[in-house]
Amino acid sequence: MGESSITGERVIACLAERFPQLYIAPAEGEDTLQLHRLAAGRGGAPADANLSHFVTSERDELRVVDTPAGPVEVVFLAQRQDFETFLQIIGHKSQPVPIARTVGAITYRGLADWAAVARAHEEYVAQGGDDWPAEFTRLAKQPGAFRAELIVISEGPYSNIAAFQTPYGEEEWLGISREIRLHHECAHVVCRRTMPDDILPVWDEITADVTGLLCATGRYDADLAARFLGVTSDGFDGGRLSEYLNEEQLSRINEVSAEVFATLTKIAQMVGAQEADAPFEFLLHLKRHPLLTY
């Protein structure tokens, strides 16, 4: 699996070239909304464009992860302030809405990529083209043309599990959490691209955690995976599982939790060296052969 990345303050700068709305600092009012519409919808950055509303960090990273479903772009922002600012700009039209502390990752689809438009324009002119508006209209009709999919993740312990509840130290657990979260989100993208109609909320979360753990640690720790979801052999112990259950399943959450716990144990027994070396392939195998039907 190949990966490439950009790090440090260049991350936001490179993204702003593609998504000029990042130049629009969050602020209330119609003026901000108008600037955002111009930047996001027409690629126009303000004359005094700057990125001073981002703190940035040397640990920021824009990573392209190579998967069986094609490349997936992931942005890691080390400063929580930058993560929230990014979400306010991209997801809320530069309005300073509160971002819940429980939000640690989000995927944006269909973002207009104005750097891709600029490259296409340059190529068209270089080849002797003289009617760019007509060419742009033609190209824009193609599925996915000039559109980007972007995962954005923040710092923090995965599933809000403290380091003392894991086999790892504080700093090591933060680094591992980052990799679990990153590849968990990539797993969802891979499944959506390859099996868009195959949705089983609980099974999808279990398999995405499998991918995250294998990519982050090289092994599948069923006990840690159980802690993420809050399941034990006896029932529910408080965790993410409840977020993915319908009312009927919630009414028997202890029974469901015990079943999920047993399933995690089965997955641990299935994982060998080959699966650990090819986590996304193993993900697709699990998706095609579900051990749970919800």
Description:
The chain has 12 helices and 5 strands. The mean pLDDT is 94. It is globular. β2 and β3 form a beta hairpin. 49% of the residues lie in helices and 12% in strands. The protein has a 5-stranded mixed beta sheet, with helices on both faces. By secondary structure, it is α+β, with helices and mostly antiparallel strands.
Q: What labels describe this entry?
A:
single chain, 294 residues, 5-stranded mixed beta sheet, 12 helices, 5 strands
> What would the principal axes of the Cα set say about the shape?
globular
Compute the gyration radius: what is it? 21 Å
Helix segment tally: 12
Cα(first) to Cα(last) distance is: 30 Å
Quaternary:
single chain
Structural class: alpha+beta
| Strand elements, count | 5
Could you tell me the strand content as a percent range? 5-15%
Strand order in the largest sheet: 1-2-3-5-4
Q: Layout of SSEs?
A:
Blueprint: E1 3-7, H1 10-18, H2 30-42, E2 61-67, E3 70-77, H3 80-92, E4 105-112, H4 114-126, H5 132-140, E5 147-154, H6 170-194, H7 201-217, H8 222-229, H9 247-250, H10 253-270, H11 273-277, H12 279-288
Parallel strand pairs: 3-5
Antiparallel strand pairs: 1-2, 2-3, 4-5
Helix pairs in contact: 6-7, 7-12, 8-10
In short, what is this structure?
Helices cover 49% and strands 12% of the residues. By secondary structure, it is α+β, with helices and mostly antiparallel strands.
